[in-house]
Amino acid sequence: MSSQPRSTRYRIRFKKTAGMRFTGTLDLQRTLERTMRRASLDVAYTQGFNPRPRLSLGAALPLGLVSDCELADIWLEGAGEPGRVLDGLRRAEPPGLEFLELEPVPDEEPSLQKLITAAEYRAEMDPDGADGEIQDRVEALVGKESLPRERRGKAYDLRPLIDSLEVETDSADSMVLRMRLASREGATGRPDEVLLALGLDPLAARICRTRLFLSTPTHSG
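Above: the chain sequence. Below: its structure as tokens.
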């Protein structure tokens, strides 16, 4: 009897670019499902009355943001060669998605939602009146013990969700902030809330998620 597993779990790293910046998580999942079908992958399905492709997304990306580091786990029947699977996805990728890497991961590993602990963002803004004092604002914010905020009618403290926050010093034509925010179940920091706490307009910022941190470093994004 063959020892080949019934299905193999693969982790995909992909970009979500401007063409899909306003695509929500559910629509993104449907897009990935269609892409796998177009790529003619031997997709594994869930059990039950309404089988769906086995697919698990990482941390949800807020609408309006782009990303260089999105993660998704997919399950395929058998054990295909990762390079061929990635090539198939690249040939089928829709506008707004760019598949970067694919690797097999142990099926018993926890879900991505449980593995992801933090996310790094880069927020770029045109220089304005706040440019000269932004470093002082950042230092004052980081020095606070708490930052009471409200999200969807519920009060919460933003400060424990900020792991790091700094101003890039090598950007001459724009003001750039880098922030590492918690991204755990029930404890997620949002870059737009950090900008608001600094007195900046999130709608005037170009925000990109640049890295996801996982509790298992061998599969970090």
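The domain at 7-109 is CATH 3.30.70.580 (Alpha-Beta Plaits).
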